[in-house]
């Protein structure tokens, strides 16, 4: 029984070390090692009785912070843009097309302007109709308020990836797409 227990502990240690080595080896994705590192380290206290786990325990704790700091790519992007004003459009759809104009100063997003364009894509819609009220029996979203809120959130978050708004899902999603396309043009 002791031999089986020792074999199980040894096998667990080998798997734990393999997971640590795999997690510390640079790969195409830096987002997944963080959760997988936590699993082996939480099971390792039972393996601290043998002599070698002390050597492997510091390794995961040292790699976990670097993996977690590498994960938020959006924060890494902040400050990594070329100064200037960049514009891009979202995908055209049955009600028009969305456009974003992003201004970058000192490598950071300083201003965002969002627009809803007409179906032909040549002019901005009349926001008097998009006031959150019912017109001719149809409920319209408050796009004027939504575009200002989303633009403010993008500047605060330093990212195009902000929450969409349920009553204008397609429009607000396309604003994030347009803003991201503009930011892609601004990347260093």
From TrEMBL:
User: Which GO MF term does the entry hold, naming one?
Assistant: FMN binding
* CC terms in the record's Gene Ontology section: membrane
Family matches, as PROSITE patterns: PROKAR_LIPOPROTEIN
**Lineage top rank: taxon:** Bacteria
Instruction: Write the signal peptide boundaries.
Output: 1-18
Keyword annotations of the record: Signal
Q: Give all residue intervals belonging to the FMN-binding domain.
A: 96-184
Name of this chain's protein: FMN-binding protein
Organism from which the protein derives: Ruminiclostridium papyrosolvens C7
